[in-house]
Each structure stands twice: as C-alpha cells, then as structure tokens.
Amino acid sequence: MADCSRCFALCCVLLPYRRDAGFGADKPGGVPCHHLAADDRCGIHADLRERGWAGCAVFDCFGAGQHVSQVTYGGTSWREHDDLGEMAAVLSVVRRVHEMLAHLGEVGRRSPDPASAGLRDRLLALRDATPVELLTADIDELNEQAGDLFAAASARIRGVAAPDLARADLAGQDLRRRDLRDAALRGALLIGADLRGLDLGAADLLGADLRGADLRGASMAEALFLTGPQLEAARGDATTTIPAGLRRPRVWVQAG
C-alpha cells in the first residue's frame, strides 16, 4: 500500500499527465506539479476531485514510490538526482512489480500454488535490485508469466461453469438482470455500466475498466484482483461491499 509520507512525491514530478485524462492541467514528465509544496506534499490533496484533479485521486503506485525513494535510491530525492528520466523509468518498473506482487499475494491467500510462490521470490529480488538491473530486466516476460498464474488461480476459484465475459464490451449497459456471479470479467469494458445491487461473487476483475461504473449496493467482497484505482474510478456507496484490505473511496463515503 502506498505511503506518501515516505515518498518524495515521485508521481507528482516524474510522471506526465493530461487535462483530458482527469488532471487539471497538462504536464510533461520530469516537471513538478504546480501544486507541489516544498515539503513534497500536495497543496490541494483534500479536495482533488472538486478542483478537477480526479486523475490524482484514482492513481495508485502500489507502494512503488516509497520503495524507489527509500530503497532503490537510498533516500535520494528527485531534487538531488541528476537523471530524472532514469528515475521515472525505474518507478514505472517497480510499480509493475508491486502490482504483480499484490495480485500474487491474493493468489497465495485464496488458491496457493508452488509456481506463484516461485514467481513471488523472483519479483521480490527484482524489486530490491539496482536501477540498472531493474531497467534491463525482462518485465514483459514476468508480466506474461504472472498473467498465466492469475488466470489459472481464477479458474480454480471461480469454477468452469461461471460466465465468461473476458474483454467484453459492456460499456454503458444495464447489467442488473445479468448473472455475473463468479464471472470472468478480465479486461472487460465496464465504463458507465450499471451494476447496482449485483452479487459479483468471485468475479475476476483483473484489468477491467470500471470508470464511471455504478457499483452502488453491489457485493464485491470476494471479487478477484480488484484494485484501489478501479474502485476510485467507479461510483459506489456505503452499501457496496469490497474486499478486505482495500480502502473505500472517500467520495463513496461522502455519497453514502
């Protein structure tokens, strides 16, 4: 989980963003956000959405920021580092590693297997590697291996009879009469879809696009591979159940 207090605001400096992607302005990578204070804190963090910065509220580095800040670069801030391009690339790799580790942790809790444990060890070793080692690692091969392990675990947990809607275009659809319990929704487009009150059971939501999806009253406590950014991008309320370990979006609490 991200701990911004131990990070040098790397995402606010190293990463580019665009107004049309939910940010209040356009910014190239390597340039500090104009809301960033001298102590590396966000000057508008309390009301990001209200001021047009929903993209910041949705973004999650999965803990990569503090690891890169404190471990990879040993406490050296972007202010003292002479190659921000390298630091940005390292942050991107470590973020992918951390996201894979988070999903592997879920596999370990719900349907462990030796292969996932072996990949976890490889990722942990890479996470603590030098910048050069991180940037020369075959991250795509690791990601492909992780994807196969996630798919196998998903099939074991959900069963063979569950609906398969992987990568389906369900954007804007009213799905309240559909049986989506334990469904394969990996990579599905659910932008603006209506899932109010649905019991999703152990539905596989890996990579599903939930931007604007209406999850009010939905039962998602057992959903697979659901992430904080997906929840932040969706619409929910106090009656939406979510997996243990995920934080209920502040905007949902206010809506409830």
From TrEMBL:
Protein name from the UniProt record: Pentapeptide repeat-containing protein
PANTHER family: THYLAKOID LUMENAL 17.4 KDA PROTEIN, CHLOROPLASTIC
Pfam families (alphabetical): Pentapeptide (PF00805)
Gene3D superfamilies in the record: E3 ubiquitin-protein ligase SopA
InterPro entries, sorted: 5peptide_repeat
Region forming the signal peptide: none
Keywords for this protein: Repeat
The keyword Repeat belongs to this UniProt entry's keyword annotation: yes
